[in-house]
């Protein structure tokens, strides 16, 4: 079974959207294999997004991601990475399809409510960034 890392970003946690967003994952058949709420430090956000460290939006993105609590989850299922990306919609909410999470809740390209791994390699890195084996349910 494939696993992906999902994050409910500070803008969505702030607006009480945690249940709604996790509900969309569950309705689509994804299983929650691990779940917690954390607040990243600036350094923690920089480590998570290190692949973007040369991008112009990196300082602002890591400020935002450390600005308040986030909910991190491991979602599991057949084709979980693509399935969660399809549920999220395009990075920029203005370009996201109708019916997607970012279309419904995203405020702009930075405050876009959710994150999802983009490949098996990034999923492995991102899951291990937040969760130990002990925190994961594998069924
Ligand atoms: P995410 O899927 O979490 O991965 C990197 C994040 O950078 C992305 O979502 C956006 O929230 C954020 N970001 C901010 N500005 C941009 C931009 N111009 N292009 C792409 N991503 C951006």
Return the average pLDDT rounded to an integer.
97
Q: Helix tally?
A: 7
Question: How would a crystallographer describe the biggest sheet?
Answer: 4 strands, antiparallel
Termini separation: 9 Å
Query: What is the helix/strand order?
Result: EHHEHHEHHEH
Any ligands, ions or cofactors bound here, and which? Answer: adenosine-3',5'-cyclic-monophosphate
State the fourth-level CATH superfamily: Nucleoside diphosphate kinase-like domain
Strand content: 15-25%
Tell me, what is the CATH class? Alpha Beta
Strand order of the largest sheet: 2-3-1-4
The count of DSSP E runs of length 2 or more, i.e. the number of strands, is 4
CATH architecture: 2-Layer Sandwich
Structural class, from secondary structure content? alpha+beta
Give Rg in angstroms. Answer: 14 Å
In the CATH hierarchy, the third-tier topology is known as Alpha-Beta Plaits
Instruction: Give the proportion of residues in helices.
Output: 25-40%
Number of domains: 1
Q: Which residues sit in consecutive blocks of at least 5 with pLDDT less than 50?
A: none
């Amino acid at each position: 079974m494939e696993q992906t890392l999902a994050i409910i970003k500070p803008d969505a946690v702030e607006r009480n959207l945690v249940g709604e967003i996790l509900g969309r994952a569950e309705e689509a058949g994804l299983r929650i294999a691990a779940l917690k709420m954390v607040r990243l430090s600036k350094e923690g956000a920089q480590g998570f997004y290190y692949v973007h460290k040369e991008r112009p939006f990196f300082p602002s993105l890591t400020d935002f991601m450390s600005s308040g609590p986030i909910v991190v989850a491991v979602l599991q299922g057949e084709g979980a990475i693509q399935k969660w990306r399809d549920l999220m919609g395009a990075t920029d909410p203005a370009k996201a399809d109708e019916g997607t999470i970012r279309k419904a809740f995203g405020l702009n390209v930075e405050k876009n409510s959710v994150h999802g791994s983009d490949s098996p390699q990034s999923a492995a890195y991102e899951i291990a960034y937040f969760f130990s084996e002990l925190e994961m349910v594998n069924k």
